[in-house]
Amino acid sequence: MNPESFALVRQKLGEWRRGGTVSPYLLRQLIEKSAWWYDHPQSPTRAPRHADRLAKGLDGLEIQFGANYFLVESALNRCERSIIDALQRAEASNELIDGKALRRKLIIDICVSVADYSHEEFWGGYPIDDNGFMHFGTQAISISDFVSEIWKLASLRSVCGP
């Protein structure tokens, strides 16, 4: 395994924070790429302007969807920790990261980052439909879009196997 590839991922992860806090631009980007108006009259349509609704909450920046909150900053923090853990294991063994296992872990990290009206996170995670969406009424977050954007932003392609 190429040590420069591991260094690139660490560098990209470091860019996610400015002065110790997550870049709001990064969180906006994740929502712009993953938010959908699922029950649009013609067909499901991307809803990038949901990023305009990011607001400071108990767990960092979040978006309220009806009685629920998607804890966007919390999701990113969890994903970052999972990536760092996988990266450390891969570096120690001098092997590629198991890409499938990491994707499964990131999906869990995202699904457990939803809270109800009282800001209690859903035990066991928020449900995902057969198409990979977490639905909040007529709005939805595409889990695969969210994970793909994280994958890209962290340059994980260079260190992950299938």
The largest sheet is: 4 strands, antiparallel
| Whole-number tally of structural domains | 1
Mean pLDDT: 92
Distance between the termini: 15 Å
Q: Beta fraction of the residues? A: 15-25%
| Helicity, as a percent range | 40-55%
* Coarse structural class: alpha+beta
Radius of gyration using CA atoms only: 16 Å
Side by side, the strands of the main sheet go 4-3-10-9
Low-pLDDT residue spans: none
Total helical segments: 5
What form results from the Cα inertia axes?
Answer: globular
- Number of DSSP strands? 10
H/E element order: HEEHEEEEEHHEEEH
Describe, in plain words, how this protein is organized in 3D:
The chain is built from five helices and ten strands, in the order αββαβββββααβββα. By secondary structure, the chain is of the alpha+beta class. The protein has one domain. The strands form three sheets. The protein has a four-stranded antiparallel β-sheet with strand order 4-3-10-9. Strands 5-6-7-8 form a four-stranded antiparallel β-sheet. A two-stranded antiparallel ribbon has the order 1-2. α3 runs antiparallel to α4. The chain starts with a helix and ends in a 9-residue tail after the last helix.
